[in-house]
Each structure stands twice: as structure tokens, then as C-alpha cells.
């Protein structure tokens, strides 16, 4: 069983001894502003302000308050630094639970002779840095700036790598998906051509009868934080107990029928960009975010790839809304004359507009407000102007278009991989639950 106990008895003896010494010391009742402080003070023990006090000891490994605060800083930064004060303490407690799980995962990996090398961690750190458009050195400076550290992020990376390697060795080989199962799904997909597929993100929190109320309350607070502008991906990475936490909770493309009934019912009725939950599922609660939708084995116009030319004008600092509107109107009238990318260049020169080309833009990757508009434009046509008084105004001209093609059929390899991942995920949850049950955790 997981044990949260007080410090051992030998730690309790020192204050008693100190109390005995203080009782026989000479005191001056008038000294110390009435505090009755002994004149010949003897300090028992040393208080080092640089000492990192432990918050928990997990099977002998220490998690310090510094560890917790630096990991918490990552979450705060991911939410734009705007986390209500009352939310911070809940996040702090959740971070501590995550760090305990992380320690257990690393310990179990080492117990199975799995060691993640410094080079592997550094390579992953470099990839994360590139995702933030930074070098590793710039990423380290940024982490320090927000109150975290590269050591904290690298520790999280080590935990994820170790746990994934452990699952590959101890769980994946024992997960079986038969060809008959896969073929059955392929047949159903082919028979349901045109049905809806959804691209989902998930945050899963486990719950037992004893922890159900706390898990539900925690899930509701996460939902509220995300609705107030928090990053779903950041919350998934830090709080989700599913194996997809490492990829920000991304479940990939699935049909609602492949999901547990409770999730399937929600997913069918959600709109792109919508968040749903908490939803009770076997073993706990899920929160799902609908990233996108598409039709099974059917060409989606939003998968068309465009060659675009963008014309943009900016407004000098101090431009009023009225001035911006007037200039935008002139820009709109001029761009109405565009008939192809050749004439777009002439218009750009006349207006002094900046021009940028991109030949590989999928309509699906554009902001939702532009997707429907661009689907209906033909080669040579320009979009209506869009933008803001702060960022300027721009138009997009379609120079070329490769329309999406319908899929040839259901991909058996992809379906098998999805089924395997679901089963690995389920066993991974049980594995971590058993590690928690057997751990000795001393909360300080």
C-alpha cells in the first residue's frame, strides 16, 4: 500500500532535547521585546536557506519544493502566465502527484535495466527547443526566465522516454490484435464510406471509489482553466494519465464507434474546437477536445493544397481605427482588380504592399474563419481583405490548387496500430496503478 507517514522517531527526538536545554538556560525577561528569549542562545541544528527541502520521498528518491515550483512554472507559462491564485495550489498538488508518478516510472525502468542516456535526453530537449523555434541554449535561457529550468524539462523527458521504453519491453509484446479483428474493422469502414471520423485530444484522470469525488472536482477545474484560455496540450502533457500525455493527449483520427460509448456519444455531437467533459469512463474521467472532423474514405475539400500569394499592408503605430478603416477600404478596392498572381504583383507594387508566396498550404491548416472562404475560390481569385488595426490587412490570391483525392480504402496497418495503442494504454494505466499501490511515499 502507498504509505504517507510522519518522519521517523529519530527526527522527533531533537526538538525534545532542545526543549530540555532551553529550560535550564539563563533568561532575561526584559530582553527580546517581551519574547522571553534566552540571553545565551544556543541554536540546535542549522537552517540553510539554500537547502532544497523535500516535499516527498518516493522509495528513497527525493522530490523537492524546487522541483514542484519549476514544473509548475512550465504550466503557468503555457497558459500565458495567467493562472488565478486559487488555482495555483490545486495545480501545485497535481504537479506533485505527477512528479511522484514520474519517479515511479523512472525507478521501474531502472529496475528493468532500462537507462536513458544523457545523449538521448539532450537530443529530445533539442527537438522540443526546435518546436519552440529556439536553440537549446535559448530554450535554457527561456526556462530560467519563466522560473523553471532545463533540468526540470529534461527530467520530464527522461520520465517519458523511460516509461515508453518500459512499455515497449513489458507491455507491448503481450498485446495481441488479430488480423480478423482488423479485417472486421476494415470491412465496416468500407461499408460506411462517408461516415464521420474525428480527430480528438483527450485528458484522462483515473478514479477509484475512494478518489472519485476528488478526481471529478479536479477534472472540472481543468475544464474551466482550458475554457479560460489554458492550453489543452499543456494540460494533457502535465495531468493526463493516459499514454498519449507525451503527445499532448492527441488520439489521432478515430471513428466514434471505436471509442467507449460515453466518449462516442459526445464526439458525434461536438463541433470543431469544442471541449467536452468531464465524461465518466471505465477507470476514471475523460475530457475530450475536437480538433477536426472528416468523412470516411471521402475526399474532403479542406485537404486541397493551395499555392498562395499573400499581399499585406501594415499600419504605422498610432493609426486610429478610422484611419485604418479608410486605408483598408482603399486596399480592398485595389485588390478587387486582381485577376491572377501576375496582376497581384502589379497591385502590390502600386500599393507598396509586402508580398509572400507559399506553394504548400493545406486549406485545413488555415484559421477556421478562412477555410470555408478558400474552399470556394478558384485559381486566380483573391480572398476578401482580412486582418486588424494592429496587425494590418492582407489578402490571399490562389495561384494553384491540387484538389484532395478520395482514399483508396481503409488502411489495415493504421487500424492495427490504433488498436494496439489503445490496449497498451489500458495496460499502462494498470501498471502505474500497481506501482502506486506498492510504493512507499513519505510526504514531508
TrEMBL record:
Keywords: Isomerase, Rotamase, Signal. Residues 195-292 form the PpiC domain. The keyword Acetylation does not apply. One of its GO terms (molecular function) is peptidyl-prolyl cis-trans isomerase activity. Pfam families: Rotamase, SurA_N_3. The keyword Signal applies. Residues 1-27 form the signal peptide. This is Parvulin-like PPIase. It comes from Sphingomonas tabacisoli.
